[in-house]
Design goal:
Elements: E1 4-7, E2 24-27, E3 34-36, E4 41-51, E5 56-61, H1 64-70, E6 72-74, E7 79-81, E8 88-95, E9 101-103, E10 108-116
Antiparallel strand pairs: 1-4, 2-10, 3-9, 4-8, 5-7, 5-10, 6-8
Function: This enzyme is involved in nucleotide metabolism: it produces dUMP, the immediate precursor of thymidine nucleotides and it decreases the intracellular concentration of dUTP so that uracil cannot be incorporated into DNA.
Protein name: Deoxyuridine 5'-triphosphate nucleotidohydrolase
Domain dUTPase-like: 12-142
């Protein structure tokens, strides 16, 4: 799959870190370090601009190492970058730990995973088909 990209950062393009990795690691593009206090959010620029093919999205996902070691996540995870968006890719980080965290320029802060998606055409009906589960949800499958 080919994706057109403009890289206005001073870092290499996102890259897969291992042969079978699903996500490309994305780096922070900062003029100065950003400190996230506990429970604070910040929109971190990457300097990347994408032209995603129609029928695809780029999912912005947290990095497991940052989550495990520092409690750093992404507020709207996974975030979606639509095929018609042409602005800068930014990552909405949140500090879920009890300690401040400093985001450094060039730090790998997220992953991009590209995925195909369908476009829905609604079909309004009066009733839905029956299933064994029915309307049971939120833990209902483990109670019998």
């Amino acid at each position: 799959m080919q994706v057109a990209v403009i890289n206005r950062s001073h870092h290499p393009l996102p890259a897969y870190q291992t042969e079978h990795a699903a996500g490309l690691d994305v780096r922070a593009n900062l003029d100065a370090a950003v400190t996230l206090a506990p429970l604070e959010r910040a929109l971190i620029p990457t300097g990347l601009y994408l032209e995603i093919p129609p029928g695809y999205e780029a999912q912005v996902r947290p990095r497991s190492g940052l989550a495990y070691k520092h409690g750093i996540g992404i507020v709207n995870s996974p975030g979606t970058i639509d095929a018609d968006y042409r602005g800068e890719v930014k990552v909405l980080l949140v500090n879920l730990s009890n300690e401040p965290f400093v985001v450094q320029d060039g730090e790998r802060i997220a992953q991009l995973v590209f995925a195909r998606h369908e476009t829905v055409q609604w079909q309004q009906v009066a009733e839905l088909s029956e299933t064994g589960r029915g309307a049971g949800g939120y833990g209902s499958t483990g109670t019998r």
